[in-house]
Amino acid sequence: MSLAIENNYVCPVCGNSDPLYIGYKNGKPYCRKCISFKGKEADNSYKIPVRANYKLSYELSEDQKRLSKALIENYKRSINSLVHAVCGSGKTEIVLEVIKYAIECGDKVGFAVPRRDVVIELHERFTTIFKRNKVALVYGGHTDNLNGDLVCLTTHQLYRYKDYFDLLIVDEVDAFPFKNNEILNQFFKLSIKGRYIMMSATPDKELLNKFKGEGFDILELFSRFHKHPLPVPKLESGKLIYPYYSLFKHLRDFLKKNKQVFIFCPTIKEGKITFTILSIFFRKGNLVHSQKVDRSQIIADFKAKKYRYLVTTAVLERGVTVKDLQVIVFKADHRIYDRYSLVQIAGRVGRKKDAPEGDVIFIGRKISDSMIEAKEDILDANKGV
Ligand SMILES: [Zn+2]
């Protein structure tokens, strides 16, 4: 009898039916794959108020408008879309119209990203854009209100939304930990009732081919909205104190020209040490990392020019836009940086129409493969401009 169960048991949570991952307790089967994903689930009867409004203080570029229309058309025709857009091309702006359309149809809309920091920023942004709608924010430890007209959540929380979303947008599909994570992918599939839109700045070939094979409409946005190419990083390396020498030299040059600078460090500890040293020589700097609670205030102050430079960890790798910014990646040969994260960081530079250029410098003890690959990827992307 137990064999019969074994052969037929399908986990109601994640869909797993592999007998290798099914255990038995008191004769009853349970799933070993998703045992850590348990908790309150979203209320499927939540009613969308069928009114949505958003306001942007600027106009979309022709390319953005074209993609925005295509996404609505695909949604109406029940086609999934993949948006392949370079950093700084304004991906978030492209989906506003389809979000509005879906909400006005009374459909349930979610926007999922792998990382908590990014989801918090995204929620802030959507709250100011969709002023009259309820935008929910859901991540590990922040799960009191699961329902909203639009739900911003981490991909880890998708398991709370079974057969729920009429439209699910997933950004950074290339980023850890969503990539190659079978369980998260399973929750993703189970959470979708309707259609989805995947977005990525740096999809690898495997991902692109997979989506092509699944009949996706692949929409490409290679030019940044101001039509300027991505800044190509300069790679520098040397032994002993060379990285510090190089960091000092570039920072001094940027500050002389009155340019603001982000200095990326691989770990919080590195960040603290680097900032301590730099602050002896350079005034008006600050330090941000994932454990700093006043992070958004520091970033706001930086934008208001209260600081000349910020030492930061990967926490500012995505999402933040500062006008006329220069970027130094210190110890860029550290193993935490892969080609994709380095491309993302380079994408912080030159994001504004009236300041489309800037410098990106990768400094290491040696030049790593990731540093070279990131530079090649950027040169490739610029061919399309
Ligand atoms: Zn399961």
Write the CATH homologous superfamily of the largest domain.
Answer: P-loop containing nucleotide triphosphate hydrolases
In spatial order, strands of the major sheet run 5-6-4-7-8-3-9
Give the CA-CA distance, first to last residue: 64 Å
Q: Order of SSEs, N→C? A: HEEHEHEHEEEHEHEEHEHEHEEHEH
Stretches where pLDDT is under 50 for at least 5 consecutive residues are 1-6
CATH architecture of the largest domain: 3-Layer(aba) Sandwich
CATH C-level name of the largest domain: Alpha Beta
Biggest beta sheet summary: 7 strands, parallel
The outline comes out as globular
Radius of gyration over all CA atoms, rounded: 22 Å
Description:
The chain is an alpha/beta fold and 385 residues long. It has three domains: 2-31, no CATH class; 62-221, Rossmann fold, CATH 3.40.50.300; 234-380, P-loop containing nucleotide triphosphate hydrolases (Rossmann fold), CATH 3.40.50. The protein is built from eleven helices and 15 strands. The strands form three sheets. The protein has a seven-stranded parallel sheet, sandwiched between helices. Strand 14, helix 10 and strand 15 form a beta-alpha-beta unit. Helix 10 packs across helix 11 (369-383). It starts with a helix and ends with a helix. The structure holds zinc ion (ZN). The site of zinc ion (ZN) has 7 residues, from loops.
